[in-house]
Amino acid sequence: MFDLIQLGQQAKKSAQQLALLSTTRKNELLELMARALLTNKDDILAANQKDLNNARQNGISEVMQDRLRLTGQRVDAMAYGIRQVIQLADPIGEVEKMWKNTDGLLIGRQKVPLGVIGIIYESRPNVTTDAASLCFKTGNAVILRGGKEAFYSNQILVRVLQNALTTAGVCENAIQFVADTSHDVANQMMRLTEYLDVLIPRGGASLIQRVKETATVPVIETGTGNNHIYIDKDAQLEMAINITDNAKTQRPSVCNAAETLLIHEDVAAEFLPKIATKLAEHKVEFHADEKAIVYLPDAIAATKEDWSTEYLDYIMAVKVVASIEEAIAHINRYNTKHSEAIITDNYFASQKFLKEVDAAAVYVNASTRFTDGFVFGFGAEIGISTQKLHARGPMGLEELTSTKYIIYGDGQIRE
Amino acid sequence: MFDLIQLGQQAKKSAQQLALLSTTRKNELLELMARALLTNKDDILAANQKDLNNARQNGISEVMQDRLRLTGQRVDAMAYGIRQVIQLADPIGEVEKMWKNTDGLLIGRQKVPLGVIGIIYESRPNVTTDAASLCFKTGNAVILRGGKEAFYSNQILVRVLQNALTTAGVCENAIQFVADTSHDVANQMMRLTEYLDVLIPRGGASLIQRVKETATVPVIETGTGNNHIYIDKDAQLEMAINITDNAKTQRPSVCNAAETLLIHEDVAAEFLPKIATKLAEHKVEFHADEKAIVYLPDAIAATKEDWSTEYLDYIMAVKVVASIEEAIAHINRYNTKHSEAIITDNYFASQKFLKEVDAAAVYVNASTRFTDGFVFGFGAEIGISTQKLHARGPMGLEELTSTKYIIYGDGQIRE
């Protein structure tokens, strides 16, 4: 079996060195990594071709093949991504606050790296360089376990980054690769408490569920978004149409897309046919409850499963509600705590929705599609947390840090 | 088997109501709880007597019986503790920062409750009222599972608090009690991911270990402190003696007490005999390595286990080191990431220690005993986190919160 323990030991040791590097040094090394990607482009594309050939042989869909595919341009984009990380402010070392306590101790809370971060992810190879560079910038060692579809691509990408570090003679083991994509090794990784300070799974609902049931390492849950648009009785028609269309169809395969439309009964008759007409441009299929289906003759009757389903496709569940209270109760029961939006002109409805809906991001009169680290202005994103501990919502560099108290005394003892 | 699911469902529902209460309302309810403790003092003491009788029959030590014992004064102190929590600022609702992004969205990060907090704890009944009031103040429902030694005490304390809420007709299920102290039910609680947002274990190393191996609920690890005092070659003799004495003997049974003394070889011959003389006042037993034992004739030879042991007693491991590097390496290998101190007059030694030692609290020239929420000025403490995720070091009210993004738009869609 693959030796995760050795990887863990190496990463832990490397993390101690990495935590002491200056920002300038870390940026120099990141620049070496970016250059190495460009220098080794041919080898990277050759390895990616192996993955693509396997994908074709295994009958993987065209959409998935496209997610997997690297081109010269996409490798350039990876290098550009690393250079963007170089530009970001380094949070490590910042003393968030410092005060003198009643004993005369000067107590400061300082940002420090988390230590060793494990990432289990699926399909897209650019996650490899994104995650590696964000972890490196924040002084964290990382252990990467990608999906089997992108095995050869991920392997060479990590090797290229590692070689850049080895050539520089610094923190060779800061970026580690799990060269085994079996479930057994993934499960072992989820329980590697001795070496991993945190585990971040990035993938679909089944991966997240497996991590939830298996992991004893502290986890930051990410990604699944069963998101709702609630159209209040006081909504503007055109805004309701535009936002629903954007949230559902602008990029349906991502976690901040909307999956269910809730609409107040007072406006259902007027709004639903018009929304249907707009979404028909993308051939959206509606799964509607008995009240909504009256206005959506082409819809399929919704079953209970629809309320919990993250379609990630041109499909939308639709339900007519009698009140904002019913909408909020439905959302809090079925959502995955990701992104939720209300469309309304009513002040009290907007405040109520913001207060009572339990989710990482709650919107008034805007599309759920904005939940994103770049859009929020963090300059980067390692994922979107849907849990309440440590980080919630889009995670940038700040969310990859921990803190420690540094305390300056002059001989104090406790009485 | 005890029905944890029902408890979880009730707590989850109650948490939704509790999250919406104003600070004034929460404070009124806390005051009712404080009064209820005073009104029901006789019943509380009678239940505690049952626990004490059982403890005596089971041959529990006098020290442990004292931890378990309630008196009129101790119940007064519990009520006083709740009134102190009333005085603390309520973090819930605070918008930490708010900004306009490039799309014109106004994005605010707001503090919200975690939801439902599970606490598994041992022996002292005052943890029941402390934890319940801190969770309540921060709008969190709590499920309390205390140790079997304090079963009747904990049960009546929770009942008294619950009755205060029931009488007021608000959030009756915000404080829940697990009336089953079996390991099976505790293990089930550690995996109650559907209902618990976080689990905080408070207890000894074996409990923490069990939680680490079993829990799939997000955990905040607390408590174990294998802490070190490192006496540098440039330390002042008197300060070194006072701080070592304080850290070891002022209250040896708590997690911020020191367990191992590391001393630079240049000052071992002069300092160790004098420290030994001082600590002899408390009959401290030394477990010394071969270099230290030369200066500590009454010491026992240390074994490898000593470096990892949290004695919580008048015992101290002693090791002579050749350099600050050796001291730091020893600490980072064996510590539990709790509290560490260096005694030195040397500027560079102090900076190096602060930078390289991996722990929640790192001290220069002060006793480790200061790691405490009250001492740090937080006004309260639910425990001391020794993990890196979410909270590190003493946890006050702030650490019992999560965040959510509230976003004000005016029709924005993503291009």
From TrEMBL, chains A, B:
The record, for Pfam families, names: Aldedh
In short, the EC number is: 1.2.1.41
Where is this chain primarily localised?
cytoplasm
Task: State the organism of origin.
Answer: Enterococcus saigonensis
Which UniProt keyword terms apply here? Amino-acid biosynthesis, Cytoplasm, NADP, Oxidoreductase, Proline biosynthesis
The record's subcellular location field reads: Cytoplasm
> What NCBIfam families has UniProt attached to this entry?
PRK00197.1 (NF001221), proA (TIGR00407)
Which family is this protein grouped under?
Answer: Belongs to the gamma-glutamyl phosphate reductase family.
Job description of the protein: Catalyzes the NADPH-dependent reduction of L-glutamate 5-phosphate into L-glutamate 5-semialdehyde and phosphate. The product spontaneously undergoes cyclization to form 1-pyrroline-5-carboxylate.
Pathway in which the depicted protein is active: Amino-acid biosynthesis; L-proline biosynthesis; L-glutamate 5-semialdehyde from L-glutamate: step 2/2
The protein's matches in InterPro entries, at most eight in alphabetical order, are given as:
Ald_DH/histidinol_DH, Ald_DH_C, Ald_DH_N, Aldehyde_DH_dom, G-glutamylP_reductase_CS, Glu-5-SA_DH, GPR_dom
Entry coiled-coil feature ranges: none
One term of GO molecular function = glutamate-5-semialdehyde dehydrogenase activity
* Protein's name according to its UniProt entry: Gamma-glutamyl phosphate reductase
Q: Which HAMAP family match?
A: ProA (MF_00412)
**What is one cellular component GO term in this UniProt entry?**
cytoplasm
The reaction(s) this protein catalyses: L-glutamate 5-semialdehyde + phosphate + NADP(+) = L-glutamyl 5-phosphate + NADPH + H(+)
